[in-house]
């Protein structure tokens, strides 16, 4: 799996959450930036800018990425709307589509790409009409989905083989610290806050998954500081040390491989 560039720390929290979800969906699909460009109306260089936080992701790009990866775009569109409103950007439906927004020339080389995909050739933008999902439909769909999966830390549904979160897990709220339990089930370690094995956790993340990471780091002898559910620089550095000790890529991003080691 290619290594992503670290997202800019100055990005607003809602934008970071959206980009984490988009990156995860792209990685699951197995598509590279060139493949994504071939399946959508946005160029390879545009996807590089969007997914590395250099430029806000247009609503149409969110929808096309989801469809190219075979996913329902509804929840991602709601997350995009929340991020746009939080940062005072244009409301959905007012931005230019690919045929007007994507007019730049194709770059001559891969000077801007996600790590690990430097060998991909550039791809020209395709002009395709963009379907717009009415906002109220998106909101209704998201509310139904969230009600059915209350307590999940990610807006994207987990894989079928990922266990549901324990209903007794403590709810996360900013500004608090948390106790860690030391439980084992089916040979795996749990700290009482999250049972995920796949959630993608990176710098500036927050929530129960982060609390679980911090607790498990401490269990393995690494000190993330306060168990507060905030994935700051200190926690990320301890994750890097932990990954290095287990022979993993020490990028400080908690994904399936790191979760597997933390749960030992």
List keywords for this structure.
264 residues; mainly alpha; 434 Repressor (Amino-terminal Domain); Muramoyl-pentapeptide Carboxypeptidase, domain 1; 2 domains; two-stranded antiparallel sheet; 10 helices
How would you portray this structure in words?
The chain is mainly alpha-helical. It folds into two domains: 13-148, 434 Repressor (Amino-terminal Domain) (Orthogonal Bundle); 183-262, PGBD-like superfamily/PGBD (Muramoyl-pentapeptide Carboxypeptidase, domain 1), CATH 1.10.101. It is built from ten helices and two strands. It has helices at 13-29, 33-39, 44-51, 59-68, 74-86, 98-101, 135-148, 208-219, 233-245, 256-262, and strands at 183-185, 188-190. Strands 1-2 form a two-stranded antiparallel ribbon. The two termini are 22 Å apart.
Mean pLDDT: 76
Structural class: mainly alpha
Instruction: Provide the gyration radius in Å.
Output: 19 Å
Biggest sheet descriptor: 2 strands, antiparallel
Uncertain regions spanning at least 5 consecutive residues: 91-133, 148-169
Q: What helical percentage do the residues reach? A: 25-40%
Span between termini: 22 Å
Output the helix-strand order: HHHHHHHEEHHH
Strand content: under 5%
Neighbour order of strands in the largest sheet: 1-2
Give the class-level CATH name of the largest domain: Mainly Alpha
Secondary structure tally: strands: 2
Taken together, the total number of domains comes to 2
- Stated plainly, the CATH topology of the largest domain is called 434 Repressor (Amino-terminal Domain)
